[in-house]
Amino acid sequence: MKVLILGGDGYLGWPTAMHLAARKHEVMVVDNYLRRTLAFQTRSESLLPNPNLEQRADLFEKKTGHKIDVCIGDITDYEFLRTLVADFCPDGLVHYAEQPSAPYSMRGHGEAALTLKNNLMTTLNVVWAVMQERPGCQIVKLGTMGEYGTPNIDIEEGWIDLEHKGRKDRFLFPRQAGSLYHTTKIMDTDLLWFYVRMANLRVTDLMQGPVYGLTTPEAELDNELMPSFHYDDIFGTVINRFLVQAVAGIPLTVYGKGDQVRGYLNLNDTLQCVTLALEEPAQAGDLRIFNQFTETFTVNELAERVVCAAQRLDIQVAISHVSNPRKEAEDHYYNPMRHGLVELGFKPQKLTDEVVMDMLRTIEQYKARIDTCIVQPRVTWGCHRSGELN
Amino acid sequence: MKVLILGGDGYLGWPTAMHLAARKHEVMVVDNYLRRTLAFQTRSESLLPNPNLEQRADLFEKKTGHKIDVCIGDITDYEFLRTLVADFCPDGLVHYAEQPSAPYSMRGHGEAALTLKNNLMTTLNVVWAVMQERPGCQIVKLGTMGEYGTPNIDIEEGWIDLEHKGRKDRFLFPRQAGSLYHTTKIMDTDLLWFYVRMANLRVTDLMQGPVYGLTTPEAELDNELMPSFHYDDIFGTVINRFLVQAVAGIPLTVYGKGDQVRGYLNLNDTLQCVTLALEEPAQAGDLRIFNQFTETFTVNELAERVVCAAQRLDIQVAISHVSNPRKEAEDHYYNPMRHGLVELGFKPQKLTDEVVMDMLRTIEQYKARIDTCIVQPRVTWGCHRSGELN
């Protein structure tokens, strides 16, 4: 299968490219290094050395014999993407090309505008390029469990059947997110759902929870093949941040009470799910939505898991409850469903002590590269009066 | 009250400005003439002569003694809007500054991108300018009944209480629109709902049905004060299009079966509703949503009403069922609620024969200006393969 991966430099994009190439798919990655630029601008660089895409593709080919094509460009430029789709003729397109940080999107007007414009325009362009040049190509889009927020009812998989005053209909499950970034993902779903109905597209929208981990079988071939791994408060997800804090001897920063529950998954589970979505495609005219996570935890539980596993490696770690920089419920009901991917064959990998210890050991090799100034919250949610700095 | 009207050149914007100024509010209108430019580019000009805003404001002041301030600029330019809000210090802001045509948004990629970018960025900038410079200012935003689509259940006013598997919560009423333009209004609601929760904004989101009519008490003072009135297939709403077709002796173009139901209202009712929303403001932290329409009709009923009223003026009119250029249900359940504005005192004006005859008489004065080439559908919904022209 020919697969075009947009956002191929990212935490998920590059490991996905290697994984699909190793499965003998013909892969092209596209990126303009936007996340890398924003991370550099906000002092939030990746822990691991990540050479440019051409260098990594060369190295990967040398190690495995599998080729990954690289194209550098901006998906918000429609003619660039349209031409690429027309020339490459993909059977599947994985759309990761979005500004991925919730705190970044809450930093100020400029960051909000960039996030909104980038994420919506990339999705619109993906839809149009496929519609105009390759209508049979399936789109696999990364959404987020954060689209649902934390409702007081069970979270179904994308859709809900409603009975209201004696009549019935089926709707997108209600969405209400906790950051502007997450809100752009809601809008992406609105956009995909509209064009699926208009143009019979084949779309899988993956509502993914926060991902953790830094190795995959392909990444282990060479440390220069490792993913972009952020551990700061802006681009780092919570487990990855805790792991680096543990190694650096910094107390784990739990935001607020720490009873916030989310559904988490291993980076390898992401690869498995995206591959399943591609290899078992959605039908034409179907917006197929899967909830993509392995286990739910409170933030406190995550912190305790990291503390325990660290102790087994003789690393002593403290937990620090810091004032919550976000506006979010800290004590809430959370019961999301997860059937679709399991029915396709998803075999999830749990967050065991061994998994945590493995990650800690890998991070220890890069201990000298940790910037200890960037693990405390630097962005607070809320309105910024003119003249205030955030 | 100081009121800033964004999109003050529009079909609703200019009459709103005159109406509020006549009620002794201090009014400033802002526009960059985007809709005028797009209408010109698509051969869809207004039937009525509409001088520029400065000329109309001068004329209005001469006729009434009421001043309307005019500022020409682009709301997608954040610094322009922020400075304006900081300098004018509005108590209320009416946001009409959006690309308002569904067919325009479906014409091609460029038009879709312009609509998405313009409508979302204006809304984001409105939120941020108010948040940063005037947090107490209430925002009155024009949404559309089209956000709801045509669900098989009763359409509640903005929100729905759900009971699911024995648990309860309250959500935005499900939304699924029939054009990209309408989808941008769904996204506007997503955006407003997010920032209302984050920053305690005061927002009224008006889910308005299609508007008809071309005079208001203030517009009748001089024909150069009349609103921008479109009757073509791209910028004209259905009743206005039928009225002009009747006067021009062209059969009324009913799209498809004509059993599509929508909720309609008179231009004067829009002014009444927007004024009520401003003068009875939403609370801080409240996203108040009203369904804003007066009566529901099928398209066939509207066509018959126009035919009957025209006959009373000795104008013979035929009805022509043309192939539906849109993808929409032509036979569907439709039962929208409408309580909130009535509770605030809204006294709707019905579409009587007399109202239709009055409109026909006014249009007859401009008969020579009708461009009979622009009343048939020129834009079809659906996917456009590369190389196809729409």
CATH structural class of chain A: Alpha Beta
Give the number of DSSP strands of chain A: 14
Instruction: Give the CATH H-level superfamily of chain A.
Output: NAD(P)-binding Rossmann-like Domain
The number of helical elements of chain A comes to 12
Low confidence ranges of chain A: none
What multimeric state do the chains show? homodimer
CATH topology label of chain A: Rossmann fold
Please give the domain count of chain A: 1
What is the helix fraction of residues of chain A, given as a range?
Answer: 25-40%
Describe this structure in words.
Two copies of one chain form a homodimer. With 390 residues, chain A is an alpha/beta fold. Chain A has one domain: Rossmann fold (3-Layer(aba) Sandwich). Helices cover 37% and strands 19% of the residues of chain A. Chain A has twelve helices and 14 strands. The first copy, chain A, has helices at residues 13-22, 34-41, 53-64, 78-88, 102-105, 109-133, 180-199, 238-248, 267-279, 299-312, 340-343, 353-364; strands spanning 2-6, 26-31, 68-72, 92-95, 138-144, 159-164, 167-172, 202-208, 211-212, 252-255, 261-266, 286-292, 295-298, 319-322. In chain A, the strands form four sheets. In chain A, strands 3-2-1-4-5-8-12 form a seven-stranded parallel β-sheet, sandwiched between helices. In chain A, helix 8 (238-248) runs parallel beside helix 10. Chain A is globular and about 55 Å long. Chain A starts with a strand and ends in a 26-residue tail after the last helix. In chain A, 57% of the residues are buried. The mean pLDDT of chain A is 97. Chains A and B meet through helix 4, helix 6, strand 6, strand 7 and helix 7 of A and helix 4, helix 6, strand 6, strand 7 and helix 7 of B.
